[in-house]
Amino acid sequence: MSVLVVGSVALDTVETPFGNADSVLGGSASYFSLAASTFTDVHIVAVVGEDFPKKHLDMFDSKGIDTGGIVKEKGETFRWQGKYGYDLGDPKTLDTRLNVFETFDPELSDEYRNIDHVFLANIDPSLQLKVLDQMNSPKLVACDTMNFWIENKLSELKEIISRVNILMINDSEARELSGEPLITNAARKIMNMGPERLIVKRGEYGALMFSDEGIFFAPSYPLEKVFDPTGAGDTFAGGFMGFISSDQTIGTDKQNLEKDFKKAVVYGSVLASFTVEDFSVNRLSELKNHEVDTRLQAFMKLSNMD
Length: 306
Ligand code: AMP
Fold this sequence. Notes:
single chain, alpha/beta, UDP-N-acetylmuramoyl-L-alanine:D-glutamate ligase, 4-stranded mixed sheet
């Protein structure tokens, strides 16, 4: 089983109260892929510029991630610069340069078009649509976005949202998209836009999953060190979709459907808890399966009342 992801592969410059990182590997597809590769085969569709260091592609290769869909174009790689305050909540975006993403027009191979699980990671919704239009008949499509696209490409974004099974966004995005301050009201409005399932990520306050079956909540793992929250949301999505696409029985058996999706939310939270422990993908790219298992056990104990 495998998952196809389209999203940004970026060079980030990040400042947190605990330090800085300059032109390091970032991007929604990068975090997603590393997290999902814990469970399944991952194929990335993205574009980088001539300045993109080869060592990052080698690192993806070493994790078994298929980089055949990462095109190198003339020009500069997507760059994002952000700054976090002490609450490590939403960052202040200091600069976003789409660069080679501005003209990226992906043409998917037949192999990619037949992949069952698709994640439209945070990137221009027009690009998400271009990829979705080329897919043959995916079983499950999920997508993410951010305020930047809610403010700049709302009609394309609404079209994408109407065509996906799952939308994963953070709470400030849910409020902005729906125009509702209360998250439960925001969720109802967003579900009316089309998706069967909505996941609202709330940083250190956990994640909520809304579906016709009700609401499920998973806390965030209470960490002792947090350096940089960049990519936590994309990592959550990678853990979630990676688990769902790891076995063809997952997410298809009606009886276990809710249980599978709940487990996926917990895996998303577990994977995200590693990303924030270091800058860029440093922690994620070194992650071992036994560390994921150990943290999952610790996670399960968090709300166990026995
Ligand atoms: P997250 O912290 O999970 O919301 O995602 C952070 C990542 O998103 C960073 O590594 C950025 O490179 C990337 N990013 C920031 N702004 C955008 C944007 N407008 N489109 C696509 N990716 C972005």
